[in-house]
Amino acid sequence: MNTIIAFILMFGLLVFVHEFGHYIFAKRAGMLVREFAIGFGPKIFSTMKNETLYTIRLLPMGGYVRVAGEDPEIIEIKPGQHIGVTFNDDEKVNRIIVNNKDKHPDCLVIEVENIDLDHKLVIEGYEVGEERLYSFQVDEKAHFIMDEKATQIAPYNRQFASKTIGQRGMQLFAGPMMNFVLSILIFLILGFIQGIPADEIKVGSVVENSPAEEAGFEANDTVIEINGQSVSEWSEFEQFVQSSPNQPVDMVVLRNGEEVSLEVVPASIETEQGNIGQVGVTLALEKSFLRTIPYSIQETYEWSTLIITNLGKLITGQFSIDMLSGPVGIYDATDQVVQTGFLNFLMWTGVLSVNLGIMNLVPLPALDGGRLLFVGIEAVRGKPIDPQKEGIVHFVGFALLMLLMIVVTWNDIQRLFL
């Protein structure tokens, strides 16, 4: 139960923060946000507030912010069509009844002669049975009523395509950006709670029955020399140890102001890259308010670099697709992390947030990176790509991503149960 709750909270936080980035920058640019969704598939919960439908959906595979201009439900009204209209206190059309007009006895039924809901916001038509041509101004927040379902109209200035390249690019980039901001915040919190790695090679703890304990290492020892070479950074210490499995390594540590010579034989640990040495010590952590902020940024940067490197290996075939994990694999990993404590779970959430930000910036159709690519192409060529062609590319890309998700999920299930 703890794992289920932790996974739901983690998934909800990561997706909410990502989609909130898209949402807030769409609002700032004046776009009409039709829906803010967590998850895909059938709705579990929904509520309408200030033009936007907020939904929680069944499948935990992401989320989306749907902006006007990408509307599958938009109703096209043509000349000659009979519609019903109702008016607000300013005598502007506030409802356009497309069908079932008999259920709205207060509406005026007209035969459409001309309609423009993008720019002029006007409807011209004849009242049924009369020859007089009426012209009605339409409220910019009027609604279509189709099958008794209301959909707000979207004048062109509220649509995604009407905004500048900078506004559209920022709206698309804001989701991944917020994931990086969340990671920095999480690493900042971790730094304040548990401290950050010491500047020196200072031993924090020594594992029982480890090579380090047998060699005489103690907590707070500071390593200053390895095999006759001066060292000052933890990466140098790791490099010496990992490259010397089952080989004696001479070290000099500073203990209570005195230099102590120790000989340690790193244990050999088997990894995918071959055998590496390990001695069983951790780097000491220290509290530093000033250093915690740059530390959180550095951690986010280093995790980003690692994820991009691994992504490159996947593309070049150095990593197999079998190494990818979907929701099932992430749930299983979360279960293992939760059992090790809250701080490790917090670290895991920060790492996944970086991963979500990086993956969404990959220039593939349907992802934020793919849509940013189209905005970039428009900026270079000076005119947009045909929206229908772009829509087909994103649709095919989304279908392929869903297929990949199914394959990855099946691999996760096989690893767990087969």
TrEMBL record:
Record membrane topology: Multi-pass membrane protein
Picking any one GO molecular function of the record gives: metallopeptidase activity
Cofactors named for this entry = Zn(2+)
Q: Membrane-spanning residues where?
A: 6-25, 172-193, 391-410
Q: What is its EC number?
A: 3.4.24.-
Which InterPro entries is this protein grouped with? PDZ, PDZ_6, PDZ_sf, Pept_M50_Zn, Peptidase_M50
Q: What class of enzyme is it?
A: hydrolase
**Compartmental location:** Membrane
Q: Note one Pfam family from the annotation.
A: Peptidase_M50
Task: Domain (PDZ): give its ranges.
Answer: 190-268
Q: Which UniProt keywords apply?
A: Hydrolase, Membrane, Metal-binding, Metalloprotease, Protease, Transmembrane, Transmembrane helix, Zinc
Chief subcellular location? membrane
> Which family would the database say this protein is a member of?
Belongs to the peptidase M50B family.
The record's PANTHER family line, in alphabetical order, gives: MEMBRANE METALLOPROTEASE ARASP2, CHLOROPLASTIC-RELATED, REGULATOR OF SIGMA-E PROTEASE RSEP
In terms of NCBIfam families, this protein maps to:
RIP metalloprotease RseP
Q: What is this protein called?
A: Zinc metalloprotease
Q: Which organism is it from?
A: Gracilibacillus xinjiangensis
